[in-house]
Amino acid sequence: MTGLPPLPAREGLGEGMVAALAGMPDPAGAEFTTRFEHDLASTFSSREAVAVSSGTTALHAALSAIGIGPGDEVLVPALTVVMTAAPVVLLGATPVFVDSDPGTLDLDYADAAAKVTARTKAIVPVHLWGRMGDPAKLRAFAAAQGLTIIEDAAQAAGSSRADVTAGTVGAAGCFSLKDGKILWSGEGGFILTDDSQLAAHARAFRSHWLQPPPGSRPQERIALNGRLAEPLAALAQANLRRFPALLEYRCAQTAHLSRALEGTRGITPLQPATDEKWNCYAPLLHIGLPHPRAFAEHLAQQGVPNSTGSFTLVPCDTRPMFTSPDRAPCRGAAQILDRTLALVLTERDTVAVLDRYAAVITWEAAAWCT
Length: 370
Ligand SMILES: Cc1ncc(COP(=O)(O)O)c(C=O)c1O
Fold this sequence. Notes:
Layout: H1 15-22, H2 31-43, E1 48-52, H3 55-65, E2 73-77, H4 82-90, E3 94-98, H5 109-115, E4 120-123, H6 135-145, E5 148-152, E6 160-161, E7 164-165, E8 172-176, E9 189-193, H7 196-205, H8 230-260, E10 267-269, E11 276-277, E12 284-287, H9 292-301, H10 307-311, H11 331-339, E13 340-342, H12 351-367
Helix pairs in contact: 1-8, 2-8, 3-4, 3-7, 8-12
Bound molecules: pyridoxal-5'-phosphate (PLP).
C-alpha cells in the first residue's frame, strides 16, 4: 500500500497572524483582509472576492445583495446543512426544499421545476461533500425559470466540473473557512463574484452599511458585523498559499482509504462524474448493508467520524423548524444520507489514522448483521 505525500508544511502558518497582531489595536485595520481578498480573486480567477466572518455570513450577504427579502422563495436542496437555509429565513424569505437524485447526488430538476412559483427568486445549489452537480444543467434551469444562482460552495473549494470552478457558476459563490474545511482559518468565509455591485453590497453588508455601495448612503439600511478578523485573514492567506498541496494531500488520503477498503463487505466508494474534478472533501462510501444509518452511527461510536453518525446530518426539510404536514419529504435526499458514509478527515490524519479507520470499517462491516 502506498503512503501519502508529505503533509503540506505548517511552519510559518502563524507568521502573518503575528504581523497582524503587531498592527493591533487598529479599529479601521483591514490590510490583511484586503491582501487575502486579492489572493483569493487571483487563485479562483474571479473578478472580486469578499472575505467575511463565516460561510453563513457569505450566503447571507450574497442573498441580500441579489435582493432576497420578505415574500420571496428560494430553492434550496434538502441535501444540506441548516446553514444554507438559515440566511434565507433571516432575510424574511422562505426556503423551498428540492430533492436530489440518488444516482448522481445532483439536484432533482423535475422536483425543482414543480416547486417554482411566481415568488421564486433564486436557487442555492449546495456542493455537499465537495461533489458538484452539472453546471450546464443548473444554468439552463435557472435561465429558463428566471432565477439567480447563489452557490453554497462551503465544502467545495478546489472542485470543478466541466472546467467550471465551484463558486463561479452563477452570480456568486459562497465558501466557509471553518476549521475542518480543506482551506481553513478557524472561522471565516468568502464570496466570489464577477459582479462589482454585488461585491460592493456584500462589503457594506458585512460592516453595518458604514461604507455603502455607489448610490446608497452610509447606514441607509440595517446590516451586521460579518467582518473577518485581521489575524484570521492572515492565517487564511497563509493557508491559501498551501492550498494546492492541501488539495493534493486530501485526494491522496481519499485514494489511500479507497484502496484500504477494497473488498470490504457492503462498502463501495462513490465515484465522481467523469467530467468532475472532485476536491475529495469527504471520502464517500456507499453502504450496502442492512440499516445503513445505524451502521454509520455505530462507526462514529467506534471512533470513525462521519457526517451522519457523528453530526446527525439529516435532510434539511426534516429539521424541526422546517417540517410541515402539507409537504412531502424529499425522499431522494433521505436515501442519499441514509446510505452514504461520508468520512470526516483533516490534514492531520496520517496513514496510521486512515489505516485504523479502514480496519474498523472492515471489521465492523463483516460483523454487521442487524
Ligand atoms: C454546506 C455548508 N454550507 C454552509 C456552511 C456554513 O459555513 P460556516 O460554518 O462557516 O458558517 C457550512 C459549514 O460547515 C457547510 O458545510
